[in-house]
Amino acid sequence: MEGEKYAKELDVAVRVVHMACSLCQRLQQGIVSAGSDLVKSKEDDSPVTVADWSVQATVSWILSEFFGSQNVSIIAEEDVQTLSKADSASLLEAVVNTVNECLAGAPKYGLKSPPKALNTSQVLEAISRCNSVGGPKGRHWVLDPVDGTLGFVRGDQYAVALALVEDGKVVIGVLGCPNYPMKKELLSYHYQYHETMSRLSPPSDDMWERGCVMYAKRGSGEAWMQPPIPGDKKFVWPNSARLVQVSSIDDPKLATCCEPVEKANSDHSFTAGLAHSVGLRNQPLRVYSMVKYAAIARGDAELFMKFARTGYKEKIWDHAAGVVIVEEAGGVVTDAGGRPLDFSKGPYLEGLDRGIVVCSGATLHEKIIDAVYASWDSSNL
């Protein structure tokens, strides 16, 4: 890692995402089994949990300590509005405790812990510091602390996504998928099945790789995947990293398409019509969050299309980390007009042509883009 551009940034980002995944795994178990006051609704009715704020505070604190707070600009999803309300006192206390517990374990990942526990105002400050609006110049970290919060609270898939954007271009991306197993054959089982089985008979280390962390650096032509850090073991670079590559399938009849689970923000009917028109036959892989990017980067699926409903604007934190990982693994990501996504306009993907198309390769991508043009003209969207 030494001597390469963005080496330090990537190193710290991978370590802090591993930390965040561990934090989320612990919290998800509690939320799924107890339900609870740890979940709130935001103004747009989307859920937010103790994990969202805790991850944001942890990542913000680590990046600011490592690179100096004056040098760190972070664009992230959460603010402290809900957390600061009078009826959120117990939630805020849970966030502060979770952040301190997580930061106390930082040495396991080769990172520094704070000299003493952070107080409430320091935790709120770390969350609030993630208020950058980005833009075409300078360096901006882009964080989605828990992408797919609905999946998270339902005991299903979700992701922790961290990217670095420099002068409007995504230069590194790290995607933590705590419930997305290293081995594809384990995908057909819900992770809770493996949790139950592991209590009955402890699995071998390689079997029990429930999650994964994927990462890539712009221009390297490589995307990597690491297993989680089990038990009391310490993170030692490169932590059994293995290269991942997109699938070589370019025939739509053989391709598998990822789809969002929720219908709220995307047009499933147009996507279904498009899938039919290009001859997709396989059952779609429906997963929450940026796990869809992970699936394509490592060859579990070949295609992901998202066409937002009218009025919905795509946010950069929902795509930045996934885009660079898929592209460096050999895939193609554009809007539906075939243009690269523009991360230089602030928190939203402004100027997006109809939707987003993520493919395992250029040949399949060309067929899908052609089909989009043909289908769009005949649709009433």
TrEMBL record:
InterPro entries assigned to the protein according to its UniProt record, in alphabetical order: DPNP, Inositol_monoP_metal-BS, Inositol_monoP_superfamily, Inositol_monophosphatase-like, Inositol_monophosphatase_CS
Q: Which residues cross the membrane?
A: none
EC class of this enzyme?
hydrolase
EC code(s) of this entry: 3.1.3.7
Biological process (GO), any one? inositol phosphate metabolic process
As its record notes, the protein acts as a catalyst of:
3'-phosphoadenylyl sulfate + H2O = adenosine 5'-phosphosulfate + phosphate; adenosine 3',5'-bisphosphate + H2O = AMP + phosphate
Keywords assigned: Hydrolase, Magnesium, Metal-binding
What cofactors does the UniProt entry give for this protein?
A: Mg(2+)
At which positions is Mg(2+) bound?
77, 144, 147, 318
Identify a single GO molecular function assigned to this protein: metal ion binding
Q: Which Pfam families match?
A: Inositol_P
Q: Which family is annotated?
A: Belongs to the inositol monophosphatase superfamily.
Q: What does the record give as the function of this protein?
A: Converts adenosine 3'-phosphate 5'-phosphosulfate (PAPS) to adenosine 5'-phosphosulfate (APS) and 3'(2')-phosphoadenosine 5'-phosphate (PAP) to AMP.
> Under which name does UniProt file this protein?
3'(2'),5'-bisphosphate nucleotidase
* Biological source species: Prunus armeniaca (Apricot)
- Taxonomy-wise, where does this protein's organism fall, top ranks first? Eukaryota, Viridiplantae, Streptophyta, Embryophyta, Tracheophyta
